[in-house]
Structures are given as C-alpha cells and as structure tokens.
Design brief:
576 residues; mainly beta; 5-stranded antiparallel sheet; globular
C-alpha cells in the first residue's frame, strides 16, 4: 500500500487537501492476448494520491556513463540493460462536463462522428470553465501489464483504433484507445505493442514485433484509407506499419532505422496528399523508401526532430535540431556551433514568427525562423550542463497566464518554466538524475491558467502557475524521453491524464494509470495524441494528417501540450 496526498485546487490558493491510500497490486498472466480482455485492468474511483518526494529509485536511463544511450556498459552502442454553481441558476450544481455514469459509446460528443473537411476537430465549442474546486483527481483505471511485460518507458499515444459501438465504422463516436509499449525486465529489451481501451484499460490486442527499446511510435492515417495505422521501428532495423486491428501492413528493412532510437513523426512535407514518415535525420515515404537524409547531422539518443514551415512557403522543413532541411534534402540553415539537441517550435518572442527551441547536452539554445541564432547553450536556473541535465524534450505553452508563451523543461534536479528571453519564471525540485524525461501542460479547469505536468523517476507531478505542487502520484521509471499526456481517452467530454511506469522497479506502480476528476469536471480535450512532437495542428482529431498543416504558432502557439475544445480555450464570456 502506498500513501499519497490527493489534492484540490482552491480558487485563491490552488492548494491540495485530503489524504487517502491506494493499493497497487500486480495482475496478469503469461499469455498473449489477441481478443479484448476485460480483466487486464483494474478500474477504480480511488483518489489519486501523492507520496512524499523521495530519492531516485533508478538511475534515469540506466546509464551511469551519462552518455544518454541507456547503456550502462558505456560502450556507446546503446545496448545494455459559493454554491459552487457558476451558471448562476442557484441550484448549487457545479459544471460537469461528463453527466454519464459510464462511457456511452452511442453518444455523439461533437457536431458529428467525423471531422468536417477544413477543420481539425469535431469537438463542440466550450463556453464554460470548471468550478473553482474541481481539481479532485482520482484513478479511473490502472493496468499492470501481462506476464513479464510490466514495464513502460515510452510516451503513451491516443487515437481511435476500434469500432466500440459496432456500427461498422471507426470514428469519433467510438472510445479512444491508448497505445503503449512494454519490455520485460530492466535491461532495455525490445518492446511489445499494446492497444488498450481508453475507458477501461481492457486489452484490445497486442503484438510482439521486437520493437526498438523506448522508441516512440507514431499514429495516423498513413495510407489514406480513413483508418489509423501505427508506425514503428524494430530493433532489427525494420520499419513496420500496423493496422488498427493489429495486422502488419508493411515490414521492410531500413538501414540504421533503430540507431539512436529516434521518435517517429508523420507529416505531409510537400503538400501532395501523401504522408511521409520522419525520424531523426531522415524522411521516408509510406513504403519505407528514403526521401531525404542528412547523415552528418548529430542526434541524441531517443532524438525528437520536428516538422514545421519555417520559411513560410507553405510546405514543411525537417528541423533536426541545430539545422533545418527542405524536404528535398537541401539545407535551409545550419548552426553548427550548437550541439545535438531536441527541436521544439513556437513563437517565444511574440513576433508572429516561429522560433526553434533546442534542448541538448550543453544547454538550451534558440534559433529564429530564418536561422539567426539568438541564444547558445544557456542554463537558466543554474543546473550545470553535465550528463543529460538539459538534453530533454521541452513543452511550449502559456504557463503563467500572462498571454505569452513560455516553455517548460527538466534539468535533472528541477522542473523549470522559462520565458522566451530565457529568464526563469519558476523552478520546482524533481529527481531525474541521468534520464531525459519530458513534460506537458493542460488548463484542467479552463480558468486561463495552465497546470504543468511532469514525471520524474519516482513521481508524477502537476504544478500550478507558480510552480507549487498540486498533485503528486507515485510512478516509477528509469526515464528516457517519455512524458505524460492529456486527452479525453473515454469520450466522456472531460479530459484525463495518462502516465506510464516501469513496474519492476521497487514500489510496483501500475504500468499505465489513467487519472480523471472525481466528478468529471475537467474541461474537454481532444481525443488524440499521435506522436512525440504532437502540437495539435499536426493531426486531425480523427487521425488524418493534414495535407496543408496550419502553423501551430498562429493557432494555439503550443508544443507537446493539449488543446481544449475546438478553439483551444474553455472560458465563459466576460461579464459586462
């Protein structure tokens, strides 16, 4: 039994109260599941709780050499181990975004079950914020894996992959699914692919393809058939594309595909209506053929490149880190004074143009959309640029409710929110000493103030806009570049939070936890999170990849964070 502190946000001080206990028990067997299982997840409404901050339970990525490849041998091959009623009608009823006791697969949550052409979402407009004391998190369900496969160390992904209401179509009237990868033991073994029901955690299907350890797949309609595929890479350097129901559609050798284990992404780089696959320093077509590569560009282990239209010509560039390339392989810019870094993109100086934020082993850097370098290897807050301290993916959002975008990033000992001028807004202590975990954000109450979300080696944290902890829940991981995600995973009209753990670590946290508000008062969220470099405009809510991707810095100006409702905000109209 693990004791924890669940928390409610008060309108004035946004602090937490209430303490309960949550029992974490392992379940599962050694069988391989191909049919939907109703007994593989534990569904509960116990309050999500928090433990006192503890010292690290793991060594981050399992690599004492500090080179970030997850290999403890250090040989560099990466192979090692009021009445509460804001409506004003006086009935004392607080706003609830989910009024059903159980998920209703027949209910149409949006204008239709499908995204209208020219739109990104089928979510209805949202003109209500949640009541002030509606941050009351509980565990909706938890899944402990099956057999030896109880360890997850990659970012969970969300999309509709199953026809839950049996109407012959997979669409937004069905329950979203959660895609996770697991490995047995703590030795960086190949990963197994699982698809779980978002409402209950029941296993739809799983597949053992020997996927590359901790490489984050991508979800999307790759072949234009209207259904979501899963794109991943095996440890044997093969690109695999798996259908929504677990059938292998493509398995083809791609040289060095698993090298550095980069996160995969999907985009239509040249606006031709065909989806490309990008990872690290290359672009592939949907058949695995190489479109371009920049082999000389250095990568981090678990590298996360990005796609964006930096030059404003309508098509996308591949932003590998310090350099950006046109989709034909020609150089857009190079900044060779900057070391290998993860790339994040947003408007951080309010000039209407995107900047490229880089997070690497030597610190943080910033490049303007035209390649002009603004900052090089900065360490706001003071944590030194050693080991993997700053080599971690960042998230972009308005964290401080001032109308400007900031970014959040871990530096091993702290989780930081940093302004666009690289001054520190706040820092909170965490413990991720040699890992490389990322974070996200979401305005759960729709009050204009987003909560920052981060998981270190031993805890999931939710912080308020001044860096105070409002939720701390045990989770266990050696950490690579995984991070929690927010989505409406049960199609109930209210957001949920999804986090993974390595359950073999002492403490036995659930492999997957889904956390919701006790009364489903958190505001609506999209029902998709399709890749590591998710930024809303990169994918429609139905999993289709836009032929012409809207610039996300003009739309929401976020990166690795979730949208609320169709316009990104969920606030009542101002009075007067």
């Amino acid at each position: 039994m693990v004791s924890m502190r669940p928390m409610k946000i008060d309108a004035s001080q946004r602090s937490l109260g209430l303490a309960v206990a949550l029992t974490l028990a392992s379940c599962g067997d050694d069988s391989v599941t191909s049919e939907t299982s109703s007994s593989s997840a534990e569904t509960s409404d116990t309050s999500a709780t928090s433990s006192d901050s503890s010292s690290s339970t793991g060594d981050g990525d399992g690599d004492p050499s500090g080179d970030g490849d997850g290999d403890p041998t250090g040989d560099g091959d990466g192979d090692g181990d009021g009445d509460g009623d804001p409506s004003g009608d006086g009935d004392g009823d607080p706003t609830k975004f989910d009024l059903a006791d159980e998920p209703d697969t027949d209910r149409n949550m949006g204008p239709s079950c499908e995204v209208v052409e020219g739109e990104l979402d089928a979510l209805p407009p949202c003109d209500q914020s949640a009541p002030a004391e509606s941050f009351d998190p509980v565990v909706q369900w938890e899944w402990f894996g099956e057999g030896l496969h109880v360890n997850a160390i990659t970012t969970p992904l969300v999309a509709n992959l199953s026809d839950d209401n049996n109407d012959g179509s997979i669409d937004l009237c069905d329950i979203p699914d959660i895609v996770v990868m697991t490995h047995d033991g703590l030795n960086n073994a190949p990963e197994r692919l699982w698809v779980l029901d978002g409402a209950t955690g029941a296993v739809h299907w799983d597949l053992d393809l020997g996927l590359s350890f901790s490489q984050v797949p991508a979800l999307g309609d790759v072949d234009g058939d209207g259904e979501v595929e899963i794109v991943a890479v095996t440890a044997a350097n093969e690109l695999v594309i798996v259908s929504h129901d677990g059938e292998i559609e493509l398995q083809v050798a791609v040289a060095q595909a698993s090298s550095y284990r980069p996160a995969l992404g999907l985009a239509d780089f040249d606006n031709d209506g065909e989806v490309e696959i990008f990872m690290g320093n290359r672009i592939l077509d949907a058949q695995g053929n190489q479109v371009m590569s920049a082999d000389a560009e250095p990568l981090n282990f678990y590298h996360a490149s990005a796609a964006a239209d930096l030059d404003g010509d309508g098509d996308l560039e591949l932003v590998i880190g310090r350099s950006a390339y046109h989709h034909d392989g020609s150089v857009y810019y190079q900044a060779n004074q900057i070391t290998a870094s993860h790339a994040q993109i947003g408007d951080l100086d309010d000039d209407g143009e995107p900047e490229v934020l880089l997070s690497g082993g030597d610190g943080l850097s910033l490049i303007e959309h035209d390649g002009t370098v603004t900052f090089v290897h900065q360490t706001p807050g003071g944590d030194p640029p050693v080991n993997n301290n700053w080599r971690r993916p960042a998230a972009i959002h308005d964290f401080t409710a001032d109308g400007n975008a900031e970014f959040s990033v871990s530096s091993a000992n702290h989780y930081n929110v940093i302004r666009g001028d690289f001054s520190l807004a706040w820092a909170a202590p965490v413990a991720d000493l040699t890992g490389a975990a990322g974070g996200t954000a979401f305005d759960f109450l729709g009050d204009g103030s987003a909560e920052a979300i981060y998981g270190d080696e031993s805890s999931l944290f939710v912080f308020d806009d001044s860096g105070q902890v409002v939720l701390e829940v045990p989770r266990l991981s050696r950490t690579t570049t995984e991070y929690p995600v927010v989505a409406d995973v049960d199609n109930d009209g209210s957001a949920e939070l999804v986090v993974v753990s390595e359950s073999d670590l002492p403490g036995n946290s659930a492999t997957v936890q889904v956390i919701r508000d006790a009364e489903d008062r958190w505001v609506p969220a999209r029902r998709i999170w399709n890749q590591h470099t998710y930024h809303v405009t990169n994918v429609r809510e139905d999993g289709r990849i836009p032929q012409h991707e809207p610039p996300h810095w003009d739309y929401l100006n976020t990166f690795r964070t979730q949208a609320q409702a169709e316009d990104g905000v969920c606030l009542p109209e101002p009075v007067g």
